[in-house]
Here is the input.
Amino acid sequence: MRDPKRQLSDPPCEELCPDDGVDPRILFRRETRAAQHSRKDGQLCKQAFQALSLVLDQLGAEAWARGMYLVAVRPAPDASRLSVSVAFTEARTFEDAEQALQRLRALKGRLRWELAATLSRKRVPELAIALAVEEGDDDQR
Here is the structure.
C-alpha cells in the first residue's frame, strides 16, 4: 500500500523528456489500426480508380462525356464514401462542364454497380463526383 504522504522526489535523470512516464507498451506499439486502414483505403481507391476509368472510357463515345477523364479517387472522409475528381482534356465553358457533371452524377448508380462488380466488399462506397480544380502554374518555382 502506498503512503499518501509520500512526496515525489527529484527525477532519476537530469532532464525530463516528453516520453517520460509513458507506458512502454504504448510507446513501442507497432503500427496502429489507423495506418492499416489508410493502406487499405489506398488500395480501395486504386481499384476504384481503375474501374471508374474504364467506365469513363466507355462513356467517352457520347458527346457530353467526350474528353472527360478521371483525375483522382480519394476517401472522403473514410472508405465508406469516395471523392471522385474528373477533368476535361479540351477546354469547355463552365456551363458545359457543369452539365456534363450533372449527367455523370445522374449515372452514379451505374458507376456504383461497376464498382460492386469489381470490388470485393460487403458495401459499395458512396460516390461524391466533383470537377478537379487546376492548381497554379508550376513555372513560378
